[in-house]
Design goal:
Layout (H helix, E strand, L loop, with lengths): L1 H18 L4 H4 L7 H4 L2 H24 L1 H25 L6 H7 L1 H12 L9 H10 L18 H22 L5 H25 L47 H10 L29 H7 L12 E5 L3 E5 L7 E3 L7 E5 L2 E17 L2 E17 L2 E7 L5 E5 L2 E7 L7 E5 L2 E7 L9 E4 L4 E6 L2 E6 L6
Parallel strand pairs: 2-4, 3-5, 4-5, 5-6, 6-7, 6-8, 7-9, 8-10, 9-11
Antiparallel strand pairs: 1-2, 11-12, 13-14
Helix pairs in contact: 4-5, 4-10, 5-7, 5-8, 7-8, 8-9, 9-10
Amino acid sequence: MEEKLISRLESAVARLEALSVSAFRDRGVADFGGADVTVDPSIVAFDDLLGQFFGRVSAAAEKIGGQVLEVTKIVQEAFRVQKELLVKAKQTQKPDLAELAEFLKPLNEVIMKANAMTEGRRSDFFNHLKSAADSLTALAWIAYTGKDCGMSMPIAHVEESWQMAEFYNNKILVEYKSKDPNHVEWAKAMKELYLPGLRDYVKSNYPLGPTWGVSGKAPASAPSKAPAPPPPPPASLFSAESSQPSSSKPKEGMAAVFQEINTSKSVTAGLRKVTADMKTKNRADRTGVVGTSEKEGRTSSPSFSKAGPPKLELQMGRKWVVENQIGRKNLVIDDCDAKQSVYVFGCKDSVLQIQGKVNNITVDKCTKMGVVFTDVVAACEIVNCSGVEVQCQGSSPTVSVDNTSGCLLYLSKDSLGASITTAKSSEINVLIPGAESNGDWVEHALPQQFINSFKDGHFETTPVSHSGG
């Protein structure tokens, strides 16, 4: 009898422990409360996703170290937070818009932490930081609440988010292809973490968004004070209190204006009449010709940028910095070597000549800027610019144009094999030498519109062709 009683008590205790979910936050990702949640196939599959794909990313980051390891740990933290949210969603009723923002706050804070690493002075590992930070937006698929929520469906959102990060991920592959295999491994593993990793996980478990609890508690919202009483309604532009007849009191505001217009008296009685000699076309002092003195007064001389003083200097023997140059047509860098890089920032209406071979050239946030260089070892990058012209007189293996409106690329015969990458850019034209030695330059426009067609189970992308092309 006692043995049966003890057996029943032990069974009851085991059932109570299995249903307990109060301490899952304190125990972290490895021990979520509620056996029915931790053994959920979708949660187990998330652990399998990290075990299969994230290990390679972490191992490569450990070998590289520095900022790459730091941003990789932030990516790991973001996936950990996502798992916590998936578990919490199964125990929570579907939130409204305000509650959803509070629900996603932990994930948003981690993403902001990654974005903060890409700001400020450009790091040597900028492409790694940018690739990792942009990729984290893929985790926002958990915010999908329906077709009217304003975002793509979860699977498409993951794919679109990775396309943003892939631009910088490809730069890593090109830059370190023959330098350091650890960086190449990190970039490849990062892509596989999202495609096919996260994409296939979402496709198998949450193709229509996260699963919310039916009878769970409502999501906690941020504490707020009691709302203040609404202010009294503003006075009407037309008649005042409606309790009085409109005909029994004088009209105010716009009603008074309309009443005056509708009256029989002339409302234009006080206006002056414009005679023929007062018209601009008949005035002798307004010929329409701009005088020389007036034109010279409008011509602006070379000035300095409000962002800071102009710079053209070599920093620490490795990096040429050209900043805030405005109206300077004779900028020259002639004492350079293949180990140095050139960074051009915030220049306007200027021309820079780089006479010699350098490792890398970056043109950032420049307007109407011209850059002429001989040879570059790695790549020439044009970022956040408008109306720039870049001419390569020697060789350049890679030219990338990102977020730029209006760019003319002049390629020499030695650089015709260059790989040109464009993203979020328009009006990109490439000019190459003619067939004859003294022939004219031949201009080619790079496509900025594409057609995506679904064929044989996948999308095929082709540029839009124009009859004048």
